[in-house]
Specification:
Length: 250
């Protein structure tokens, strides 16, 4: 009995010592500093000639596989702001809905920051349920990859080939949960969007990645690699087995 009590006490000490440091880590990355109220208003109602963001990205901000639009809810504001600025300056071309360049130009820098800050503030349950329904996509004729093969690529990469592929985790963190300020959350992202963007990185139609990193990675990925990685990422959970915290928990 004494040995059991000692073990429990040790565990309680470790939880008491470790958990707060993990939770406090959420303050270690740059947060959005815009006006959430204005950002929310623009998201749902648009502004001037700029339509409501929700009309394409959904009321919940989780994107739409049918439209090919990405999940924005819970994404890091610093990344979202950069993408809006890249659209506004034509460093990135919208080849999905063909409206983002005009929409971004129609918003002021402050508005773009407000929208990004609002989207970051949306609470999403990142347990693997916020991404795409792969069975539903497959039933609708979408070619869906294999999650177990995707997990291997995401977590370990593929080095045993002429054109090696590094692990997604090496930049985007565990299960693609992100590593701000540079690397966005890709876990829980929409499957169709992930596939399309990886192909755009590969063919050079998207080029706004820091130092060409994503282009270099995607050029070494086959179609099967892309579908497999996307299949795993869309259903990937932020939480590892037995771990109830992530660096971004509040």
């Amino acid at each position: 009995m004494r040995r059991f009590i000692t073990a429990v006490s040790a565990a309680a000490f470790l939880l008491g010592a470790v958990a707060p440091s993990v939770v406090n880590a959420s303050a270690q990355y740059p947060r959005g500093n815009g006006n959430i109220s204005n950002g929310k208003d623009i998201y749902f109602n648009g502004k001037g000639d700029v339509p409501a963001c929700a009309s394409c990205h959904g009321q919940d901000g989780l994107g739409d596989d049918n439209l090919g639009t990405p999940r924005l809810a819970g994404q890091f504001a610093i990344f979202l702001r950069k993408q809006l600025e890249d659209y506004a300056t034509d460093k990135r071309q919208d080849t999905t809905m063909f409206v983002m360049n005009a929409n971004a130009k129609g918003l002021s820098p402050a508005d773009r920051n407000d929208v990004a800050t609002y989207l970051e503030s949306i609470k999403v349950k990142n347990d693997g349920s916020a991404g795409s329904n792969l069975k539903e996509l497959a039933a609708n004729g979408v070619e869906v990859g294999l999650t177990h093969k995707g997990k291997s690529l995401v977590e370990f990469g593929q080095g045993n080939r002429a054109k090696p592929v590094p692990a997604c985790r090496s930049c985007h963190g565990y299960n693609g949960r992100g590593a701000p300020p540079v690397y966005p959350r890709i876990g829980g992202q929409k499957y169709v969007y992930l596939v399309n963007q990886l192909k755009k990185w590969r063919d050079g139609s998207r080029t706004n990645d820091p130092r060409g990193q994503m282009q270099a990675v995607a050029r070494n990925m086959t179609d099967e690699d892309i579908k497999n990685a996307a299949a795993y990422l869309t259903v990937a959970s932020d939480y590892s087995s037995g771990n109830f915290f992530t660096p971004y928990d509040h």
